[in-house]
Amino acid sequence: MTKPLLELKDVVLKVNRNTPEEITILNKLNLTINAGDFITVLGSNGAGKSTLFNAIGGDLSIDSGQILLNGKDIAHESVEKRTRFLARVFQDPKLGTAPRMTVAENLLLAERRGQRRGLLPRGLNHHMAHYKELTVTMHNGLDDRLTTATGNLSGGQRQALSFLMATLKRPEILLLDEHTAALDPRTGQDLMHLTNERVSQDKLTCLMITHHMEDALTYGNRLIVLHHGKVTYDVAGADKQALTSEKLYSFFAEIE
Amino acid sequence: MSLAVSAIGQGLLWAVLGVGLFLTFRILDFADMTVEGTFPLGAATAVAAIANGMNPLLATLLAFVIGALAGLITGLLYTKGHIPILLAGILVMTACYSVNLRIMGRANVSLLGKATLFKNHFLASLPQYFDSVVLGTLIMVIITTIVIYFLQTDLGQGFIATGDNQTMARSLGINTDNMKIMGLMVSNGLIAFGGALVAQNNGYADVNMGIGIIVIALASIIIGEVAFGDLTLNQRLVAVTLGSILYRFVLLLVLKLGFSANDLNLISAIILALCMMLPVFNNVLNFKHLVKRGLDTND
């Protein structure tokens, strides 16, 4: 039995408020996310995909509507507060890691996501063995570079690390914003497989923005399409499995 | 000999400024102009308190607190008021000038005949200039140890992450505004503490003693980095103190060359500019590269 984990009700979000350039990005958007959903999010540029993530994450405040987590309205909670249940991986590998801190230090920061940070020693050495085990599962040499500053890693390693950091402390909701788009196709696919493995293993609730229609069809149990700030298409389970890229293309041709 | 001892002593006392500025300039990654106001603020606070009969140690600690309050104001203007950090610092620095005059009552207050941290039985029994070496070493060991410990705590790591990648820090639940305010408070507290030390060492506080302070503090950071190369964060903090001492020796050399004390701000600015441009010079004057290219064309 699935229950709604996150509900967006009539969410309106405008930018350049009260200026002639005011644009409504999210236009009475409704979306119910159930625990365990792995949702791929499609939509053309400007459809509001990233804005949707920023509204959930709290980077942008909404103009009206509700964002309910387990029934509780969180629309006015700060970005920092929301990190207690929310983890994100950004498109740009540079955004997800601290370049002058080592891989292990970054992991330790992520392990304390959403927690109070006090004046006790961080105890990095206690965690090293655990981090070694974790990074070995990435199969990209990250485990040999635990004490390297992340600024010296390749983009693929950095992005794999960002993903690992987002899932290290199990988030109630994981937001992936085209997290493989900046990588070369091979590295991107590796990270995509890993993502799928981790999300299904840990039964994470996850939203993933992608421009790869194949990825959107292959991964996840549910697929939504955003258009002009609304969810215009929402398919799950067997219906999603029956979906083909031809059908999706013709759907896109219709709405454009 | 006594000149060298004096340089070491001065370097140690002024190193407090370098460590204070390190927290904002190197860790939070911005230049905080407030320090030009908080240095004389600390001096004024300590001197006024001592002149009114306060214990010198308490007066010096009070200077830290008052300096931290000035840092708090800069932090609030910057994070909550969305004023660019450079301007926020200049605003508080300018305001400090009036505050300092209010605290002291006039432009220059002497400590003649008053107790200071340097006038205790033990320090007075040492040979000339050794008092600042001993006190400076003690203070730098304590401050550096505390800062290094702090940077290894969970809070300290959040502080470093804020300066390193703000977007990531926020996405991990670190309140970056609070981190910046905290950094500015501790940094300016240390700078004011340094001001209190220098004023007691000189025997007076002057309302104009803050001019060029940011250059002097930066010089100890940059000279330390240039002199000791690739270091870990903890080693770099220690290098700041050594850089501060090296800087004093450079000034000593400059004075020996016949320049007057009035030229020191010009010289300090030139030294700092040269040190900060070193990476550029290295690129332009890359002899190895030139030689290699010359050989390649012969192939």
Extended strand count of chain B: 2
Q: What name does the CATH topology of chain A carry? A: Rossmann fold
Q: How many domains in all of chain A?
A: 1
Q: Helix count of chain A, per DSSP?
A: 9
Which word captures the global form of chain B?
Answer: globular
Succession of helices and strands of chain A: EEEHEEHEHHHEHEHEEHH
Largest interface: A-B, 34 and 22 residues
The residue-averaged pLDDT of chain A reads 93
By CATH, the superfamily of chain A comes out as P-loop containing nucleotide triphosphate hydrolases
Specify the CATH class of chain A: Alpha Beta
Number of helices of chain B: 14
CATH architectural category of chain A: 3-Layer(aba) Sandwich
Based on the structure given, which CATH architecture of chain B is correct?
Orthogonal Bundle
Write the layout of secondary structure elements.
The complex is a heterodimer of chains A (256) and B (299).
Chain A: E1 4-15, E2 23-34, E3 38-42, H1 49-57, E4 64-69, E5 72-73, H2 79-82, E6 86-89, H3 103-111, H4 124-136, H5 155-168, E7 173-177, H6 185-201, E8 206-209, H7 213-218, E9 222-227, E10 230-236, H8 237-242, H9 245-255
Chain B: H1 2-28, H2 35-51, H3 56-79, H4 85-104, E1 108-110, H5 121-124, H6 130-151, H7 154-164, H8 166-171, H9 176-202, E2 204-206, H10 213-228, H11 233-256, H12 264-276, H13 278-284, H14 287-298
Helix pairs in contact in B: 1-6, 1-9, 1-10, 1-11, 2-3, 2-4, 2-9, 3-4, 3-9, 7-9, 10-11, 10-12
